[in-house]
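Morning F.,

Quick status update on the modeling queue. The single chain you submitted on Monday has been processed. Sequence for confirmation:
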Amino acid sequence: MCSRKVLMQILGREVADEAGGLAIGSAKVTIPVLGLTEIISRLQKEASAAKFKNFRSMYSSIVGAITTDVAAMVIPLDDHMVHRGHSVFDTSILVNGYLYELDAHLDRFLSSATKAKITPPFDRATIREILLQTVSAGKCQHGILRFWMSVGRGNFELSAKNCLESSLFACLVEENFIDDEPLDGLKVITSTVPIKHKDFATIKSTNYLLNALVVMEAEEKGANVGIWLDEDGNIAEGQNMNVGFLTNEGELLLPPFDRILSGCTAKRVLELVPQLIKENAIPGLKSVKQTKISLSEAKIAAEMMIIISGEMIMPVVEWDGKPVGNGNPGRVSVALRKCMRQDMLVTPSAVLTLVPSPKPV
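Structure tokens below.
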């Protein structure tokens, strides 16, 4: 039985099968009961693993402070984000010491909190300052700032009535989004995982079970991304990204945000493309709009692209085992990617927020 195998691995001793049940052998296993000092020591040892080397800083409203010690980057088990998923999150990319579209992401963050009936522990200005100071403490130029808000800690019940105050967390992970490596293009599939109801799809909550299943399904089929269709069979979104299609006439089409998450990068695309067209910066790109896109219409598009923070634009070369366009990264997709990534670098800019130098202790 699988349960017996797991039990043997965990306990490290023989397990005998008697009368169809499980009987633990005579060997003794002692699980230590540790105090805070010993627990911290073990956490520090675990935090020394290579996979945590790029965690730079974390803020927690539970302690009201920022830490740069990975071992201290923890969340209480009774926080409702952990055991109920009653929480929301968002991200902002750090490039050359500037946060890209911080305010757009913060606005969406607070909107998601309102829809999730979470009362922020601080006002918007204070939360913004907390995020900036968290990044500043991380002392790096490139990365991704992730931030979360939950209904709070207090118990393991479903109800939040005993939660005294909502929780706010933020974490900076160092990562470089600037280096532009040659693009091979992505492979996508049409997902069979049920799409979220629009009331939940438009909230950026931490309940990403369905999103995770979409990724797993795609990976099992040798692809990178799963594409959701809405109840009417129209294109919706990828597991954590928006999608766009270039028609043979040069029109860039994006699904409307009425039943999917309003991507900040997708909204920036909608803002920038008209100016790019006016400047003839991308030959072949003639217009852009949001509209419902049927599966049959999408399948004959000249190009398909994934729109996501950090990478900005990723061309798609294969869909459900068949080539998209000529099977190579689309020329317009690649050009738009370069323009969007340049948008993260040009200063001064209304979408770039300079991270202040660390404040003296």
